[in-house]
Amino acid sequence: MGAPLLSPGWAAGAAGRRSYVLLAPFLLTLLLVRPSGALVEGLYCGTRDCYEVLGVSRSAGKAEIARAYRQLARRYHPDRYRPEPGDEGPGRTPQSAEEAFLLVATAYETLKDEETRKDYDYMLDHPEEYYSHYYHYYSRRLAPKVDVRVVILVSVCAISVFQFFSWWNSYNKAISYLATVPKYRIQATEIAKQQGLLKKAKEKGKNKKSKEEIRDEEENIIKNIIKSKIDIKGGYQKPQICDLLLFQIILAPFHLCSYIVWYCRWIYNFNIKGKEYGEEERLYIIRKSMKMSKSQFDSLEDHQKETFLKRELWIKENYEVYKQEQEEELKKKLANDPRWKRYRRWMKNEGPGRLTFVDD
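User: That's the sequence. What structure does it adopt?
Assistant: Structure tokens below.
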């Protein structure tokens, strides 16, 4: 059979594809190639040389640059500019004088800083590195003026101070509440009477106090006794310095190393050697099964923890049985709760999806 005939449309498409293949490198070259001139609009002094703007050489020192800047700034300052006869400089009008003043200020800002001047000199010597000049220019322009480490340190310290006073406020609220609970107030009052603290508050003679002062002093005595006798745990516990964010960050490497050592010992003792769990390890497994934090678990009563140990809840099967019992008990409580009954009745009769009208 003869060779298949090619349609004119297919031939035109093939020719177009060949032209695109040949044109692609040319377009890529146009995209990547930039003007080789050292002075670029939008960088530093734009198309003007910063050294020429100030009228100094590239070898000029800081003092010479500062002196040239002061002279030109006085000359082109918008509020003080007065055109001189025969002045053909860049600032012949107040508007052009303002532009000249801004250009002089930009040149001085560029050349007074060692690092910025180094970048500018590099741009003059290597004009072909177009994108690199843009990167260095804007990285310095947009870089924060204050050290980031200082900002982080100040922020952490501020958060730590807020934490400390917030925790103290919560702790004092808890003590004030416990002082109103009859159980704890009666016990604290008995202890205060045994120690003779209340008699001191009611001393007579020259140091006689008003009833309000005596009442306030007795209240403070009772609160201090509650503070010393009751160990509050959880979110209202007495604040500790080591719990603050600042100290947690400082002690983070120590805590990390301690955890690694503890984990390795756990693997070695219980997974490899097969030792039996101690009381501390059993409570840890129970806490993890209950998905409670350490502070939440520590706030539980001792008799509750003893119950957990007696029922051997560190064993997964025993914990599943205990969990199911707790869920059933909760359902019974809710079933006998009048408020829950009213809520179920309302959901059945007038709950979502039911529109009712009440005639007053």
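DSSP finds 17 helices and no strands in the chain.
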